[in-house]
Structures are given as C-alpha cells and as structure tokens.
Amino acid sequence: MRIHEIMSRPVVAVTTEATPAETAEVLHREGFTTLPVLDRRGRLAGLVGEPEVVGYFLGEARRAAAPYGPDVRQEATAGGLMRTPAASVHTEATVADAVTTMLEGAQRCLPVVGDDGQVVGIVSWRDVLRRVILPAGSARS
User: Fold this and answer.
1) If you count Cβ atoms within 10 Å of the first and of the last residue's Cβ in the chain, which end, N or C, has fewer?
2) Helix 20-30 vs helix 50-65: angle between axes, to the nearest 10 degrees?
3) What residues are paired with 44 via a beta bridge?
4) Which of 47, 29, 17 has its CA nearest to residue 119?
5) How far apart are CA 133 and CA 135, in angstroms?
6) Over 60: is that where the pLDDT of 69 sits?
7) d(CA 7, CA 54)
C-alpha cells in the first residue's frame, strides 16, 4: 500500500513567518500536536509542535518575571522555532517505509511530498491505524 492512499489532506501547516501565537492557535484549533512549516514556495522547511511553542511561551514568561535582566526578546517565528531537518516521504513511498521513518525519527507524523517537492499530505500514526491496521483486523474476524 502506498502513502498517497492513506495520507490526510488537505495539509494543515504554517509558514516560516507565522508567529508563535498563530502557530499555537492552529495547533489548538485543528487538534494537532505537530505541524509542517512551509517556505514561501510551499516546500517543507521543518516541523513545529507543542513542545517548541510551549517552550517559547515559557521563556517569555521567565523573561517577564526578571525585570532587571537584559531584554533579549526577538520577533519569533515558526521558522525560528521549527525542528530541522524534517523527515518526509514521497507520495509513492510504501506504508512500511513511512512507518520505519516515523519510528526511527520518533515522529508522530510525517509530511508527504510530491514530485515537485510540495507538501501534499501528512501521514500520522492515526492514519496508519485507521486505514491499515483496523481494516486488516476486521478482515481477519
């Protein structure tokens, strides 16, 4: 089975210019823990998730609590918070290849890219469970 058969779409992502607040809003609204970060051409730049966003806001709170320290606040963006490099899989990759990549990278989801490098979908553990594992189990019953 190929990834394009089970991936979720359309892709919910943020751009490298998104603020931490905008990123937090998308994570919350969509119920995701991790989002792809796209560059201006729609290509994968990295991944940003709850740990990076919460860590950013925790740092902001600590800076606010230390009024005599230097103000090192910068305009943060998803591009500055994201994890790189971000593993991805091609639309024609097998589910087994994607699962291996997710396990090796301890990732909960994996962006799916097309021939042109554009992010066209995302595959998560939930997609694998819902579209591969559960149907296989019901076929055995």
Assistant:
1) C
2) 130
3) 38
4) 47
5) 6
6) no
7) 27
d(CA 49, CA 28): 11
- Measure the CA–CA gap between 117 and 41, rounded to whole angstroms: 9
pLDDT tens track for 10-68: 999 999 999 999 999 999 999 999 999 999 999 999 999 999 999 999 887 777 666 65
Which whole-number Å values give the CA distances from 89 to 4, 96, 125, in the listed order? 10, 11, 14
| DSSP per-residue string spanning 22-56 | HHHHHHHHHT-SEEEEE-TTSBEEEEEEHHHHHHH
Q: Which residue ranges form the domains of the chain, and what is each CATH number?
A: 3-140 (3.10.580.10)
List the structure tokens of 125: 């553990």
DSSP secondary structure string for all residues of 81-138: H-BSSPP-EETTSBHHHHHHHHHHTT-SEEEEE-TTSBEEEEEEHHHHIIIIIHHHHH
Q: Which residues of 49-61 are buried (b: 16+ CB within 10 A; e: fewer)?
A: beebbeebeeeee
- Give the containing element (helix H, strand E) for 14: strand 14-15
- Dig out the tokens for 111 from the structure: 């962006």
